[in-house]
């Protein structure tokens, strides 16, 4: 049993949100020592392989698996998450003003299904506080993205202004930004995924993006109709986004109000990701950051074989802890060795050449 398994035995006795907030407190106060204690402090010794992936936006992920948004909403444990083998991390969702989110309880474990149900509703400390946390954290030279959302009280027709404010605040200080219009827990948010609303957001961001051009992604829901995806990809291309993040959580009213992540999302997420990858063919400026139910090395292999490059995890990290990243690394090393390659570019080429 590793240290995380022991920790999980205790944490899983607690209410999920309480376990989360207490863990975040610990991780923010003792980042380096907890990374070492969990046996997951980034191995700084020479490795025979180079796991880094350079995206089309120029960002270099040190490993093809990153941390998804929502775990470190307030950017308080950047120093911890960048000292374990995540290739990049995403903080937020941040809204302009602080907000409480939905009434508790609002986070639930579905242990058998290795899934979570949440209806947090963008609880966060707001852009000023999160900005100051972001500036304080030690990033260990890694890519840090900031995920942006509108306040619940902002009228739908003023959502653009929230994204504009947030872009202006964070663009000079992070490696990428994400427009999040795909959380099921802010009323009306997902309606902003229609082409007209998206266009308005991107038009509103134009001036700020001309001043400071930070890679910009759009995070989409797995509940979009598949036939609507190509038009969203076209729009992302037209507005010179860096790509899409697919997917956010899915709704399953039979399981409760909120968004489902983890095992129960995997299949739906995979189908959406493959649709996005297909629509991105012939669009050399766009990348997909894959997320949703990724928990096994096989899932990564599947994603890479479909043409994906980097992905993120949230729920599987809760169930497996940092050991998962070490296991992924070991399995990737074995694959690279068997293919006779030493870097990710050659690895990806070996996938398309052989299979
Ligand atoms: C408790 C919880 C809170 C989340 N909060 C956010 C959020 O604030 N912003 C966001 O873009 N995604 C959020 N997500 C979604 C994740 O980033 C991710 O897209 C989703 O969980 C699917 O990945 P997974 O199956 O690896 O968890 C949240 C997920 C969970 C479980």
In short:
With 355 residues, the chain is an alpha/beta fold. Helix content is 40%, strand content 15%.
For this entry, give a set of tags.
single chain, 355 residues, alpha/beta, TIM Barrel, 8-stranded parallel sheet, 3-stranded antiparallel sheet, 13 strands, 40% helix, globular, binds flavin mononucleotide
Model description:
This protein has 355 residues and is α/β, with parallel strands linked by helices. It has a single domain, classed as TIM Barrel (Alpha-Beta Barrel), CATH 3.20.20. Helix content is 40%, strand content 15%. The chain contains 13 helices and 13 strands. Helix 10 links the parallel strand 12 and strand 13. Helix 6 runs parallel beside helix 7 (195-211) and helix 8 (229-238) packs across helix 9. The protein is globular, with a radius of gyration of 19 Å. The mean pLDDT is 94.
Q: What about the largest sheet?
A: 8 strands, parallel
Oligomer: single chain
Low-pLDDT windows of residues: none
- Biggest sheet strand line-up: 3-13-12-10-9-8-7-4
Average pLDDT, rounded to a whole number, is 94
Total helical elements: 13
CATH topology type: TIM Barrel
Question: Percent range for helical residues?
Answer: 25-40%
Terminal-residue CA separation: 36 Å
The coarse silhouette is globular
Strand content: 15-25%
How many domains? The number is 1
CATH superfamily: Aldolase class I
How does CATH name the architecture? Alpha-Beta Barrel
Q: Provide the structure class.
A: alpha/beta
Tell how many strands the DSSP assignment holds.
13
List cofactors, ions and other ligands.
flavin mononucleotide
User: Any idea what the radius of gyration is?
Assistant: 19 Å
Order of helical and strand elements:
HHHEEEHEEEHEHEHEHEEHEHEHHH
CATH class: Alpha Beta
């Amino acid at each position: 049993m590793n240290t995380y398994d022991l920790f999980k035995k205790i944490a899983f006795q607690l209410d999920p949100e309480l376990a989360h907030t207490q863990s975040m407190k610990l991780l923010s106060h003792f980042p380096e020592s907890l990374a070492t204690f969990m046996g997951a402090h980034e191995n700084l010794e020479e490795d025979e392989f180079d796991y880094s992936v350079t995206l089309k936006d120029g960002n270099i992920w040190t490993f093809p698996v990153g941390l998804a948004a929502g775990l470190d909403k307030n950017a308080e444990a950047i120093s911890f998450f960048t000292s374990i083998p995540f290739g990049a991390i995403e903080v937020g969702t941040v809204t302009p003003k602080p907000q409480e989110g939905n009434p508790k309880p609002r986070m639930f474990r579905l242990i058998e299904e290795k899934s979570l149900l949440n209806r947090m509703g963008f609880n966060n400390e707001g852009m000023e506080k999160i900005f100051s946390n972001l500036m304080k954290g030690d990033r260990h030279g890694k890519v840090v993205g900031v995920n942006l959302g509108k306040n619940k009280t902002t009228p739908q027709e003023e959502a653009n202004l929230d994204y504009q404010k947030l872009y202006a605040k964070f663009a000079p200080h992070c490696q990428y930004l994400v427009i999040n219009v795909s959380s099921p827990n802010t009323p009306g948010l997902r309606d902003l995924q229609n082409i007209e609303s998206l266009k308005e957001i991107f038009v509103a961001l134009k001036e700020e993006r001309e001043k400071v051009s930070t890679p910009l992604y759009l995070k989409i829901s797995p509940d979009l109709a598949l036939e609507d995806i190509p038009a969203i990809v076209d729009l992302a291309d037209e507005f010179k986004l860096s790509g899409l993040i697919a997917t956010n959580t899915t709704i399953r009213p039979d399981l409760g109000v909120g968004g489902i992540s983890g095992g129960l999302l995997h299949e739906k997420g995979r189908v959406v990701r493959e649709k996005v990858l297909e629509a991105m063919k012939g669009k050399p400026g766009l990348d997909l950051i894959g997320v949703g139910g990724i928990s096994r090395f096989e899932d990564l292999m599947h994603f890479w074989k479909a043409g994906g490059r980097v992905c993120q995890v949230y729920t599987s990290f809760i169930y497996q802890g940092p050991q998962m990243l070490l296991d992924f690394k070991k399995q990737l090393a074995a694959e690279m060795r068997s293919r006779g390659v030493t870097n990710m570019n050659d690895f990806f080429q070996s996938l398309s050449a052989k299979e």
